[in-house]
Amino acid sequence: MATTATDKAQVNPGQGDDKKGQQQHDAKGERKPQRGRHDEKLKILCGTANEPLADEICAFLGIPRGQAHITRFADGEVYLQVLENVRGADVFVVQPTCKPVDEHLMELLLMIDALKRASARRITTVIPYFGYARQDRKDKPRVAISAKLVADLLTTAGAHRALVVDLHAPQIRGYFNIPVDQILASPVLVDYFRKMELPNLTVVSPDAGGVERARFVAKKMDAALAIVDKRRTDINTTEVMHVIGDVSGRNCLIIDDIIDTAGTTVKTAEALKNAGALKVFACASHAVLSPPAIERIGNSVLEQVVVTNTIPASEAAKNEPKIKVLSIAGLIARAIQSIHEETSVSTLFL
User: Fold this and answer.
1) Which residues are catalytic?
2) pLDDT tens digits, residue range 174-197?
3) Measuring CA to CA, which of 162, 215, 248, 263 is 20 to 30 A from 78?
Protein backbone atom coordinates (compact mmCIF):
# COMPACT_ATOMS: atom_id res chain seq x y z
CA MET A 1 0.00 0.00 0.00
CA ALA A 2 1.37 3.40 -0.93
CA THR A 3 1.95 5.87 1.86
CA THR A 4 1.94 9.59 2.37
CA ALA A 5 4.94 10.71 4.37
CA THR A 6 4.71 13.60 6.81
CA ASP A 7 7.66 15.18 8.57
CA LYS A 8 7.70 18.42 10.54
CA ALA A 9 11.52 18.68 10.48
CA GLN A 10 13.64 20.55 7.93
CA VAL A 11 14.12 18.57 4.73
CA ASN A 12 16.11 18.50 1.56
CA PRO A 13 13.79 18.24 -1.47
CA GLY A 14 16.24 15.75 -3.06
CA GLN A 15 15.69 13.09 -0.33
CA GLY A 16 -15.72 -12.82 8.31
CA ASP A 17 -19.29 -13.67 8.75
CA ASP A 18 -20.70 -10.32 9.77
CA LYS A 19 -18.92 -8.43 7.02
CA LYS A 20 -21.92 -8.74 4.75
CA GLY A 21 -24.33 -7.19 7.20
CA GLN A 22 -21.90 -4.51 8.39
CA GLN A 23 -20.67 -3.33 5.00
CA GLN A 24 -23.96 -3.57 3.12
CA HIS A 25 -26.17 -1.31 5.24
CA ASP A 26 -28.37 -0.68 2.24
CA ALA A 27 -28.11 0.11 -1.45
CA LYS A 28 -27.58 3.80 -0.70
CA GLY A 29 -25.05 3.46 2.13
CA GLU A 30 -21.99 1.28 2.60
CA ARG A 31 -21.25 -1.58 0.27
CA LYS A 32 -19.04 -4.62 0.04
CA PRO A 33 -15.48 -3.90 -1.12
CA GLN A 34 -14.75 -4.77 -4.70
CA ARG A 35 -12.01 -7.08 -5.90
CA GLY A 36 -9.11 -5.54 -7.81
CA ARG A 37 -10.34 -3.28 -10.59
CA HIS A 38 -7.10 -3.14 -12.66
CA ASP A 39 -8.04 0.34 -13.92
CA GLU A 40 -4.73 2.09 -14.47
CA LYS A 41 -6.43 5.38 -15.33
CA LEU A 42 -8.21 5.71 -11.98
CA LYS A 43 -6.00 7.17 -9.25
CA ILE A 44 -6.84 8.03 -5.63
CA LEU A 45 -4.42 10.29 -3.77
CA CYS A 46 -4.71 12.14 -0.49
CA GLY A 47 -3.04 14.68 1.73
CA THR A 48 -2.44 14.27 5.45
CA ALA A 49 -5.89 15.43 6.62
CA ASN A 50 -7.66 12.05 6.67
CA GLU A 51 -5.51 9.19 5.40
CA PRO A 52 -7.60 6.45 7.08
CA LEU A 53 -10.68 7.58 5.12
CA ALA A 54 -8.72 7.55 1.86
CA ASP A 55 -7.52 4.02 2.62
CA GLU A 56 -11.10 2.89 3.26
CA ILE A 57 -12.23 4.41 -0.03
CA CYS A 58 -9.45 2.61 -1.88
CA ALA A 59 -10.40 -0.66 -0.18
CA PHE A 60 -14.00 -0.29 -1.37
CA LEU A 61 -12.83 0.43 -4.90
CA GLY A 62 -10.24 -2.34 -4.83
CA ILE A 63 -7.33 -0.15 -5.89
CA PRO A 64 -4.13 0.92 -4.11
CA ARG A 65 -3.75 4.47 -2.84
CA GLY A 66 -1.56 6.64 -5.04
CA GLN A 67 1.90 7.52 -3.80
CA ALA A 68 2.75 11.04 -2.72
CA HIS A 69 5.42 12.51 -0.46
CA ILE A 70 4.36 15.40 1.77
CA THR A 71 6.69 17.01 4.26
CA ARG A 72 7.49 20.42 5.67
CA PHE A 73 10.49 22.70 5.89
CA ALA A 74 11.57 24.05 9.27
CA ASP A 75 9.44 27.17 8.79
CA GLY A 76 6.30 25.11 8.09
CA GLU A 77 6.29 25.51 4.30
CA VAL A 78 4.78 22.46 2.58
CA TYR A 79 6.85 20.36 0.19
CA LEU A 80 4.85 17.93 -1.97
CA GLN A 81 5.78 15.45 -4.69
CA VAL A 82 3.58 12.94 -6.52
CA LEU A 83 5.59 9.73 -6.73
CA GLU A 84 3.89 7.94 -9.63
CA ASN A 85 2.90 8.49 -13.22
CA VAL A 86 -0.49 10.22 -13.56
CA ARG A 87 -0.26 11.27 -17.21
CA GLY A 88 -3.70 10.92 -18.78
CA ALA A 89 -5.20 9.59 -15.52
CA ASP A 90 -8.52 10.40 -13.86
CA VAL A 91 -7.24 11.52 -10.45
CA PHE A 92 -9.28 12.01 -7.26
CA VAL A 93 -7.64 13.88 -4.38
CA VAL A 94 -9.22 13.11 -0.97
CA GLN A 95 -8.61 15.96 1.45
CA PRO A 96 -11.03 17.45 3.98
CA THR A 97 -10.02 20.98 4.93
CA CYS A 98 -10.34 20.37 8.65
CA LYS A 99 -8.11 21.52 11.50
CA PRO A 100 -5.47 22.82 10.90
CA VAL A 101 -7.61 24.26 8.09
CA ASP A 102 -5.03 26.46 6.38
CA GLU A 103 -2.36 23.73 6.26
CA HIS A 104 -4.71 21.15 4.80
CA LEU A 105 -6.09 23.62 2.27
CA MET A 106 -2.55 24.48 1.15
CA GLU A 107 -1.70 20.79 0.79
CA LEU A 108 -4.75 20.34 -1.42
CA LEU A 109 -3.87 23.31 -3.63
CA LEU A 110 -0.27 22.13 -4.05
CA MET A 111 -1.35 18.60 -4.92
CA ILE A 112 -3.77 19.90 -7.55
CA ASP A 113 -0.98 22.02 -9.04
CA ALA A 114 1.44 19.08 -9.04
CA LEU A 115 -1.09 16.83 -10.77
CA LYS A 116 -1.88 19.50 -13.35
CA ARG A 117 1.82 19.91 -14.18
CA ALA A 118 2.12 16.10 -14.37
CA SER A 119 -0.50 16.06 -17.18
CA ALA A 120 -3.35 14.36 -15.32
CA ARG A 121 -6.36 14.16 -17.66
CA ARG A 122 -8.88 15.18 -15.01
CA ILE A 123 -8.46 16.26 -11.39
CA THR A 124 -11.39 15.91 -8.99
CA THR A 125 -11.07 17.31 -5.49
CA VAL A 126 -12.87 15.06 -3.00
CA ILE A 127 -13.56 17.30 -0.01
CA PRO A 128 -15.50 15.39 2.68
CA TYR A 129 -15.48 18.49 4.88
CA PHE A 130 -15.38 21.87 3.12
CA GLY A 131 -13.70 24.36 5.46
CA TYR A 132 -14.53 28.07 5.38
CA ALA A 133 -18.09 27.16 4.34
CA ARG A 134 -19.65 29.00 7.28
CA GLN A 135 -18.70 32.36 5.77
CA ASP A 136 -20.96 32.00 2.74
CA ARG A 137 -22.61 35.42 2.45
CA LYS A 138 -22.11 39.07 3.30
CA ASP A 139 -24.32 39.35 6.36
CA LYS A 140 -22.36 42.22 7.94
CA PRO A 141 -20.43 45.19 6.53
CA ARG A 142 -16.81 44.58 5.44
CA VAL A 143 -16.73 40.80 5.86
CA ALA A 144 -15.17 38.26 3.51
CA ILE A 145 -17.09 35.54 1.67
CA SER A 146 -14.52 32.84 2.32
CA ALA A 147 -16.50 30.01 0.69
CA LYS A 148 -16.33 31.82 -2.66
CA LEU A 149 -12.62 32.55 -2.22
CA VAL A 150 -11.79 28.90 -1.52
CA ALA A 151 -13.83 27.82 -4.55
CA ASP A 152 -11.84 30.25 -6.71
CA LEU A 153 -8.54 28.99 -5.29
CA LEU A 154 -9.39 25.38 -6.11
CA THR A 155 -10.41 26.30 -9.66
CA THR A 156 -7.32 28.46 -10.24
CA ALA A 157 -5.04 25.70 -8.94
CA GLY A 158 -6.37 23.42 -11.71
CA ALA A 159 -9.23 21.33 -10.35
CA HIS A 160 -11.66 20.18 -13.06
CA ARG A 161 -14.51 19.24 -10.73
CA ALA A 162 -15.29 18.82 -7.03
CA LEU A 163 -17.01 16.17 -4.94
CA VAL A 164 -18.22 17.38 -1.54
CA VAL A 165 -20.21 15.99 1.38
CA ASP A 166 -23.04 18.01 2.96
CA LEU A 167 -22.09 21.61 2.28
CA HIS A 168 -23.04 24.03 5.04
CA ALA A 169 -25.17 26.00 2.57
CA PRO A 170 -26.49 24.77 -0.82
CA GLN A 171 -25.59 28.01 -2.60
CA ILE A 172 -21.86 27.28 -2.18
CA ARG A 173 -22.09 24.98 -5.20
CA GLY A 174 -22.84 28.08 -7.26
CA TYR A 175 -19.58 29.70 -6.16
CA PHE A 176 -17.63 27.22 -8.28
CA ASN A 177 -17.04 27.68 -12.00
CA ILE A 178 -16.51 23.93 -12.36
CA PRO A 179 -18.97 21.02 -11.90
CA VAL A 180 -19.68 20.19 -8.24
CA ASP A 181 -21.29 16.96 -7.04
CA GLN A 182 -22.67 16.99 -3.50
CA ILE A 183 -23.43 13.75 -1.70
CA LEU A 184 -25.36 13.56 1.55
CA ALA A 185 -24.39 11.65 4.66
CA SER A 186 -28.06 11.08 5.45
CA PRO A 187 -28.23 7.52 3.98
CA VAL A 188 -25.60 6.36 6.48
CA LEU A 189 -27.15 8.22 9.42
CA VAL A 190 -30.75 7.27 8.58
CA ASP A 191 -29.84 3.61 8.26
CA TYR A 192 -28.23 3.64 11.71
CA PHE A 193 -31.26 5.17 13.44
CA ARG A 194 -33.73 3.01 11.52
CA LYS A 195 -32.10 -0.03 13.05
CA MET A 196 -32.64 1.44 16.53
CA GLU A 197 -36.42 1.42 15.87
CA LEU A 198 -37.11 4.40 18.12
CA PRO A 199 -40.87 4.76 18.74
CA ASN A 200 -42.66 8.12 18.47
CA LEU A 201 -39.68 9.74 16.78
CA THR A 202 -39.46 13.46 16.02
CA VAL A 203 -36.64 14.82 13.87
CA VAL A 204 -35.50 18.23 15.12
CA SER A 205 -33.75 21.04 13.29
CA PRO A 206 -31.60 23.07 15.71
CA ASP A 207 -32.25 26.26 13.70
CA ALA A 208 -34.36 27.62 10.88
CA GLY A 209 -31.51 27.19 8.37
CA GLY A 210 -31.49 23.42 8.80
CA VAL A 211 -35.21 22.83 8.27
CA GLU A 212 -34.78 21.46 4.74
CA ARG A 213 -32.19 18.94 5.94
CA ALA A 214 -34.37 17.86 8.88
CA ARG A 215 -37.47 17.60 6.67
CA PHE A 216 -35.58 15.34 4.25
CA VAL A 217 -34.54 12.98 7.07
CA ALA A 218 -37.99 13.08 8.71
CA LYS A 219 -39.55 12.02 5.42
CA LYS A 220 -37.06 9.16 5.03
CA MET A 221 -37.79 7.93 8.57
CA ASP A 222 -41.54 8.61 8.49
CA ALA A 223 -41.15 10.82 11.56
CA ALA A 224 -42.59 14.10 12.81
CA LEU A 225 -40.69 17.39 12.46
CA ALA A 226 -39.87 20.09 15.01
CA ILE A 227 -37.71 23.22 14.99
CA VAL A 228 -35.78 24.89 17.79
CA ASP A 229 -35.61 28.68 17.50
CA LYS A 230 -32.25 30.03 18.60
CA ARG A 231 -30.53 33.36 18.82
CA ARG A 232 -26.79 33.53 18.16
CA THR A 233 -25.23 36.02 20.58
CA ASP A 234 -21.62 35.66 19.36
CA ILE A 235 -19.44 33.42 17.19
CA ASN A 236 -19.56 29.86 18.60
CA THR A 237 -22.08 31.04 21.22
CA THR A 238 -25.84 30.43 20.98
CA GLU A 239 -28.88 30.93 23.15
CA VAL A 240 -31.79 28.57 22.57
CA MET A 241 -35.18 30.25 22.80
CA HIS A 242 -38.09 27.85 22.32
CA VAL A 243 -39.32 24.69 20.57
CA ILE A 244 -41.69 24.88 17.60
CA GLY A 245 -43.62 21.62 17.42
CA ASP A 246 -44.86 18.96 19.83
CA VAL A 247 -42.06 16.89 21.39
CA SER A 248 -43.70 16.01 24.70
CA GLY A 249 -43.50 12.27 25.40
CA ARG A 250 -41.53 11.64 22.18
CA ASN A 251 -38.00 10.55 21.28
CA CYS A 252 -36.11 13.30 19.48
CA LEU A 253 -33.31 13.21 16.92
CA ILE A 254 -31.42 16.48 16.38
CA ILE A 255 -29.84 16.65 12.95
CA ASP A 256 -27.20 19.17 11.86
CA ASP A 257 -24.40 19.35 9.33
CA ILE A 258 -21.63 20.45 11.72
CA ILE A 259 -20.99 19.98 15.43
CA ASP A 260 -18.23 22.41 16.37
CA THR A 261 -18.17 23.40 20.04
CA ALA A 262 -21.46 21.51 20.58
CA GLY A 263 -23.06 24.56 22.20
CA THR A 264 -26.04 24.53 19.85
CA THR A 265 -26.50 20.76 20.10
CA VAL A 266 -26.37 20.62 23.89
CA LYS A 267 -28.66 23.63 24.42
CA THR A 268 -31.11 22.26 21.87
CA ALA A 269 -31.18 18.95 23.76
CA GLU A 270 -31.86 20.82 27.01
CA ALA A 271 -34.70 22.75 25.40
CA LEU A 272 -36.25 19.52 24.13
CA LYS A 273 -35.95 17.89 27.54
CA ASN A 274 -37.57 20.91 29.16
CA ALA A 275 -40.40 20.58 26.61
CA GLY A 276 -41.05 17.00 27.73
CA ALA A 277 -38.97 14.88 25.33
CA LEU A 278 -38.22 11.33 26.51
CA LYS A 279 -34.80 10.68 24.97
CA VAL A 280 -32.72 13.01 22.84
CA PHE A 281 -30.20 11.84 20.24
CA ALA A 282 -28.13 13.95 17.87
CA CYS A 283 -26.38 13.32 14.58
CA ALA A 284 -24.23 15.35 12.21
CA SER A 285 -22.18 14.85 9.08
CA HIS A 286 -19.07 16.69 10.26
CA ALA A 287 -17.61 16.27 13.75
CA VAL A 288 -15.36 19.32 14.10
CA LEU A 289 -15.57 18.96 17.91
CA SER A 290 -13.53 21.98 18.95
CA PRO A 291 -12.93 22.23 22.71
CA PRO A 292 -14.94 21.97 24.92
CA ALA A 293 -17.30 19.98 22.64
CA ILE A 294 -16.44 16.49 23.90
CA GLU A 295 -16.73 17.54 27.55
CA ARG A 296 -20.06 19.22 26.84
CA ILE A 297 -21.43 16.15 25.12
CA GLY A 298 -20.29 13.88 27.93
CA ASN A 299 -22.02 16.04 30.54
CA SER A 300 -25.18 16.66 28.52
CA VAL A 301 -28.66 15.12 28.55
CA LEU A 302 -27.97 13.59 25.13
CA GLU A 303 -28.23 9.80 24.91
CA GLN A 304 -25.86 9.54 21.93
CA VAL A 305 -24.22 11.73 19.28
CA VAL A 306 -23.69 10.00 15.93
CA VAL A 307 -21.27 11.49 13.39
CA THR A 308 -19.41 10.37 10.28
CA ASN A 309 -15.68 10.15 9.62
CA THR A 310 -15.46 13.03 7.12
CA ILE A 311 -13.12 14.46 9.77
CA PRO A 312 -10.83 12.02 11.62
CA ALA A 313 -11.93 11.52 15.21
CA SER A 314 -9.52 12.45 17.99
CA GLU A 315 -8.59 9.96 20.69
CA ALA A 316 -10.75 11.89 23.15
CA ALA A 317 -13.75 11.57 20.82
CA LYS A 318 -13.12 7.85 20.35
CA ASN A 319 -13.01 7.37 24.12
CA GLU A 320 -16.25 9.29 24.79
CA PRO A 321 -19.01 6.64 25.13
CA LYS A 322 -21.72 9.03 23.94
CA ILE A 323 -20.01 9.62 20.57
CA LYS A 324 -20.49 7.09 17.77
CA VAL A 325 -18.54 7.44 14.50
CA LEU A 326 -19.90 5.90 11.28
CA SER A 327 -17.90 5.44 8.10
CA ILE A 328 -18.94 7.28 4.96
CA ALA A 329 -16.18 5.69 2.85
CA GLY A 330 -18.54 3.41 0.92
CA LEU A 331 -20.76 6.31 -0.12
CA ILE A 332 -17.80 8.40 -1.29
CA ALA A 333 -16.31 5.39 -3.11
CA ARG A 334 -19.54 4.84 -5.02
CA ALA A 335 -19.64 8.53 -5.96
CA ILE A 336 -16.05 8.36 -7.22
CA GLN A 337 -16.87 5.29 -9.27
CA SER A 338 -19.94 7.02 -10.73
CA ILE A 339 -17.94 10.09 -11.72
CA HIS A 340 -15.17 7.96 -13.23
CA GLU A 341 -17.68 5.90 -15.21
CA GLU A 342 -19.79 8.98 -16.12
CA THR A 343 -22.96 7.69 -14.43
CA SER A 344 -25.44 9.44 -12.12
CA VAL A 345 -24.31 10.45 -8.63
CA SER A 346 -27.73 11.60 -7.43
CA THR A 347 -29.04 8.02 -7.32
CA LEU A 348 -26.82 7.42 -4.26
CA PHE A 349 -29.09 9.39 -1.95
CA LEU A 350 -32.41 10.03 -3.69
Assistant:
1) 230
2) 999 999 999 999 999 999 999 999
3) 162
